[in-house]
Design a protein that fits this description.
By secondary structure, the protein is an all-beta fold. 0% of the residues lie in helices and 64% in strands. The chain is built from no helices and ten strands.
Length: 92
């Protein structure tokens, strides 16, 4: 089954699915600033566009296409989509 998720007045959308390798979402973010919370560890891989991720400890890093970021569980973090972007997220 594919679940459709929509956030931030339609500026962020994702498709969620599970398979033998785990739980995933594939999504798009329009240019803008977004704040997300995690309930499990995530690996976010940028598949198109450019963004910057800010973790709660103040660490900020810019990501280019096909770069991945490890997001710890139980935190709130910010994504600055510097242009319209797409991603794949794996939950572990």
């Amino acid at each position: 089954m594919i679940n459709v998720n929509e956030y931030f007045n339609g500026n962020a959308k994702s498709l969620a699915f599970n398979n033998s390798q785990g739980k995933f979402t594939a999504g798009v973010l329009l240019k803008g600033e977004y704040e997300f919370s995690t309930s499990s560890k995530e690996w976010m891989t940028l598949t198109a566009g450019k963004w910057e991720i800010e973790l709660p400890n103040g660490t900020k890093k810019q990501y280019d296409i096909f770069e991945a970021c490890e997001i710890p569980s139980g935190i709130t973090f910010k994504v600055y989509a510097l242009e319209d972007s797409s991603y794949l997220c794996r939950y572990v």
